[in-house]
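pinging the channel bc i need a second pair of eyes. not urgent but kinda urgent?? the chain im working w is below, pasted from the shared doc
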Amino acid sequence: MEKDEAAAELARQASEALAGLLEHERTQPPDGDRFDRCSETLDELARALMTIVEVVDHCTASSPVEEDPDGLTEKARDLATAIVRRRNSLLAESAAARLNVLRPAPVPHAG
């Protein structure tokens, strides 16, 4: 069996892109609406995770009809679901912050 250098290079590029994304996120200011900034990124990462599992399955299956012996696909789906849940929690956090901005502060009573 020959090495697939093209596939290895594509995987390396994906790994480098993820490292770049991590560095990008580290440089972002912690304030602001994180949902607006991160929601699409988190959705794409969940999709990328499922693609990674498909590639792993394709590379490791002994036959095209082999079942997932380690339950990797199910575990990846669970992780992808957890990523989307975190994104949704950002939405809830964002909505609560917007509500607090819209709600007037209580006026102290003169005593």
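so The longest helix spans residues 72-102. and DSSP finds three helices and no strands in the chain. — does that match what u expected or am i reading it wrong
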